[in-house]
Design brief:
The structure holds three protein chains of three kinds. Chain A is of the alpha+beta class. In chain A, 57% of the residues lie in helices and 16% in strands. In chain A, helix 1 crosses helix 2 and helix 3 runs antiparallel to helix 5. By secondary structure, chain C is mainly alpha-helical. Helix content of chain C is 87%, strand content 0%. Chain C contains three helices and no strands. The chains are: A alpha+beta, B mainly alpha, C mainly alpha. At the B-C interface, helix 1, helix 2 and helix 3 of B face helix 1, helix 2 and helix 3 of C.
């Protein structure tokens, strides 16, 4: 378990260093130290939990997230050009079914980039959203995102 | 071909940044301004970064440019929620028609 | 191409200045904090464009650092600064 996270995180930081150094090889000593330090810090700050991330779930989540943040950006750009006449703001409340912790935090943060929604409060399972246009199917889209986040985290023991 | 695509992406990026600023000017309250800035500016930056990455000299340099995007996205998403949350806790009421 | 990039960079700078003026007038402290978002996105955009037009690849690193600082600054504000200015509301 710990070996696996050590290996995966180390690999991630090596890739990150390679990108940051723009593929040059002359800084490998510094890079090695940075990778070791980053891996140590990450294990210290975020110990491998019983939750881990599934690759298939991650790809599905990213696809949904990128597509919808594109939609969200275009939609809000259109609204901005039409002015406040285009707005129909409202606060909506709903119950989240995700477990507490990283899943909920990911949801409420990710919603800020989804079309027309912005998280304003998360109190237990009670989620409050500010929406730009009350006519949009925000609840359905939030549910879809919830399902994807559930699939993203895999509980292993 | 790549030149044209890159140019189009840069122009699209400029447009979305512009839309974000217009939203900041025209939207009535802090919540709707947050929507405009977080969503439109992020998309603008994404377009600009892709446009530049297409012209990068090496794969690593292109990836480095693209690495900036998820960082800024994560930053915008969390700052957006943090500001909205504070505003809500302070009792700033959202604008209604 | 370089001309286009310079034009876009200048345009983004104009956007940033305009937004700064508007948000500085903002009625609530939250409006002023929108700057954290703006500088994170627009500032990064300007820097990467300049990195390309001025042939200074190091500016890309500056852009990365700016993006990180924007995130930290925004969270710090939201959690502490505003509370102190406005008094305890939580």
């Amino acid at each position: 378990m710990i070996i696996r996270s050590l290996f995966l995180r180390g690999l991630l930081f090596v890739a990150l260093w390679w990108i940051l150094a723009e593929g040059r090889h002359d800084g490998w000593l510094l890079g090695g130290i940075a990778v070791a330090a980053a891996t140590w810090a990450s294990l210290k700050l975020l110990p491998p939990a019983r939750q881990s991330i599934r690759l298939a779930g991650l790809l599905a989540f990213l696809r949904f997230f990128l597509w919808n943040s594109l939609r969200g950006g275009m939609q809000v750009a259109g609204m901005a050009l039409r002015g406040r006449e285009a707005l129909q703001p409202a606060i909506i409340e709903l119950q989240v079914s995700l477990p507490p912790g990283s899943a909920r935090i990911l949801l409420v943060n990710a919603l800020g980039l989804m079309p027309g929604s912005l998280g304003v409060d998360l109190d237990g399972a009670n989620l409050r959203l500010h929406v730009l246009d009350a006519c949009q199917p925000i609840v359905a889209e939030t549910r879809a995102l919830e399902v994807l986040i559930t699939d993203l985290f895999e509980v292993t023991s | 071909m790549i030149e044209w695509l890159s140019m189009a992406l840069l122009l699209a990026g400029a447009f979305f940044f512009f839309a974000g600023t217009v939203g900041l000017l025209r939207f009535p309250d802090v919540y709707s301004r947050l929507h405009a800035l977080a969503k439109a500016d992020n998309l603008g930056l994404g377009c600009a970064l892709f446009g530049l990455a297409l012209q990068a000299e090496s794969l690593a340099a292109a990836l480095k440019l693209l690495l900036i995007w998820p960082l800024v996205m994560a930053a915008s998403a969390s700052i957006g929620f943090a500001i909205a949350h504070r505003a809500h806790r302070l009792g700033i009421a959202p604008w209604r028609k | 191409m370089t001309t286009l990039m310079q034009a876009v960079a200048l345009f983004l700078l104009a956007n940033l200045v305009l937004a700064l003026v508007v948000a500085a007038r903002g009625p609530t402290p939250a409006d002023r904090m929108l700057m954290a978002l703006l500088i994170g996105t627009t500032g990064t955009g300007i820097l990467v464009l300049l990195a390309q037009t001025m042939h200074l690849p190091a500016l890309v690193d500056v852009a990365l650092v700016l993006a990180l600082l924007a995130a930290i600054g925004g969270i710090a504000f939201a959690r502490r600064a505003w509370q102190d200015v406005e008094g305890e509301h939580d």
